[in-house]
C-alpha cells in the first residue's frame, strides 16, 4: 500500500512526554497555589499576634480573674511558643476550624459561609456591569481620541476614582429609593420576604429562582441593583481607563494602519484587529477589579446594610473579635489567590505564546 499520502505516525514516546509535561504543569500549579496560601496563612497569623488586642481578654472579658484568664489562655493554646501556635493554626485552618466568633457565638467558618455569598453575589453583578459598560466605553474613547465623547468618558473615569463610595451610595439611596422609589431600600429583601426562601447557594437571586419564588426574585433584584451599580461604577472607571490605554497602543501599530489602507471597515479594524490582542491583558485587569470589589465592598455594605463579609469584618473589628477578623481576612486573601490563578489559566488559553 502506498504510504506517501498517509499521515505521519507520532514519534515513539510523544504521548508519554505530553502526559508527563501536563502532569508536571498541573503539579507546579498546585504547588504554587499551596505555597501562596501557606504564605497567606503566615501573614494573617502574625498580623493577629502583633495587633494590640488581647484575644484572651476579648473572650473572658475585662472583669475576669487572673486564674480565669490563665485557664482561657492555656485552652486557646496561647501559652505555647509562637512556632507551635503557627503549626496548630495551619492545622486548624486546613481542617476547617477557624475558631469561635465572640460577636455571634458561632464557628467563624459557619458565619463566613452565611455572609460571603451575599458579597459574592453583589460583587459578581457589579463586575458584570463594569465589564458590560467599561469595555465598550474604553474602546469608543480610544477610537475617537480627542473628541468630546472621549473627554466625557475620561471625566466619568475620573469620577470613578475620585468620588467616595459611601457618598455615592448615600446619594443613590436618597435619589432612587427615598425620592423616586425606583429601587428597594437597604438590605437584601423587604422584611416580610425575609426567611421565606430556604438557602441553597446562599445567593438570594439564585435561591429564589430555584424555589420558584418569582416575587421574591424581583424584590431581591430591586434591592441589589443599586449597590451593585455603585460597585460597577468604580470597576467601570478602572476597566474603561485600562481598555482605552490598551486600545490606543494597538491602534498605533502598523498592522492596524495596513488594514485601514486596504479598505477594511473601521468597525472590523477596531473590534477584530485592535481589540483581539488586548483580550489577554484585559483578563488581568478584570480579575484584579473583581477581587477588589470582593475585598473593598465594606463601605457599600455598611451604607446599604448588606449582610456580607465586609459588614461582618467591620463588626468583628469593632468587637475585637480576632478569630472573625482573621477568618474574613483569610477568605478575602484566598479569593485574590484563586482569581489570580484563574486569570493566569485564561491567559495561557487565550495567548498561545504563554504556553
From TrEMBL:
PROSITE patterns noted in UniProt: ABC_TM1 (PS50928)
Main location: membrane
InterPro entries xrefs: BPD_transp_1_N, MetI-like, MetI-like_sf
The protein's name: ABC transporter permease subunit
Domain ABC transmembrane type-1 stretches: 116-347
One Pfam family linked to the record: BPD_transp_1_N
Keywords: Cell membrane, Membrane, Transmembrane, Transmembrane helix, Transport
Organism: Devosia marina
Compartment(s) of residence: Cell membrane
Amino acid at each position: 500500500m502506498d504510504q506517501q499520502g498517509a499521515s505521519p505516525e507520532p514519534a515513539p514516546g510523544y504521548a508519554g512526554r505530553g502526559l508527563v509535561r501536563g502532569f508536571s504543569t498541573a503539579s507546579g500549579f498546585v504547588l504554587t497555589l499551596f505555597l501562596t496560601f501557606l504564605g497567606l496563612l503566615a501573614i494573617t497569623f502574625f498580623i493577629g499576634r502583633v495587633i494590640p488586642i488581647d484575644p484572651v481578654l476579648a473572650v473572658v472579658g475585662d472583669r475576669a480573674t487572673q486564674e480565669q484568664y490563665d485557664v482561657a489562655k492555656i485552652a486557646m493554646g496561647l501559652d505555647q511558643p509562637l512556632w507551635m501556635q503557627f503549626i496548630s493554626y495551619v492545622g486548624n485552618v486546613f481542617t476547617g476550624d477557624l475558631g469561635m466568633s465572640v460577636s455571634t457565638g458561632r464557628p467563624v467558618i459557619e458565619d463566613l459561609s452565611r455572609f460571603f455569598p451575599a458579597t459574592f453575589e453583589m460583587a459578581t453583578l457589579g463586575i458584570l456591569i463594569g465589564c458590560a459598560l467599561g469595555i465598550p466605553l474604553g474602546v469608543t474613547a480610544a477610537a475617537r481620541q480627542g473628541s468630546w465623547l472621549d473627554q466625557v468618558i475620561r471625566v466619568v473615569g475620573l469620577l470613578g476614582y475620585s468620588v467616595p463610595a459611601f457618598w455615592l451610595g448615600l446619594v443613590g439611596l436618597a435619589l432612587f429609593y427615598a425620592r423616586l422609589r425606583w429601587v428597594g431600600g437597604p438590605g437584601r429583601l423587604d422584611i416580610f420576604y425575609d426567611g421565606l426562601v430556604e438557602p441553597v447557594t446562599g445567593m438570594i437571586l439564585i435561591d429564589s429562582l430555584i424555589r420558584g419564588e418569582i416575587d421574591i426574585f424581583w424584590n431581591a433584584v430591586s434591592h441589589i441593583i443599586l449597590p451593585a451599580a455603585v460597585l460597577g461604577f468604580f470597576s467601570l472607571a478602572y476597566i474603561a481607563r485600562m481598555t482605552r490605554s490598551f486600545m490606543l497602543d494597538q491602534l498605533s501599530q502598523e498592522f492596524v494602519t495596513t488594514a485601514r489602507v486596504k479598505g477594511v471597515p473601521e468597525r472590523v479594524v477596531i473590534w477584530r484587529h485592535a481589540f483581539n490582542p488586548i483580550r489577554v491583558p484585559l483578563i488581568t485587569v478584570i480579575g484584579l477589579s473583581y477581587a477588589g470589589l470582593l475585598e473593598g465592598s465594606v463601605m457599600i455594605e455598611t451604607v446599604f446594610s448588606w449582610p456580607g463579609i465586609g459588614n461582618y469584618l467591620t463588626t468583628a473589628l469593632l468587637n475585637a473579635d480576632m478569630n472573625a477578623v482573621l477568618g474574613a481576612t483569610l477568605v478575602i486573601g484566598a479569593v485574590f489567590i484563586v482569581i489570580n490563578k484563574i486569570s493566569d489559566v485564561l491567559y495561557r488559553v487565550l495567548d498561545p505564546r504563554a504556553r
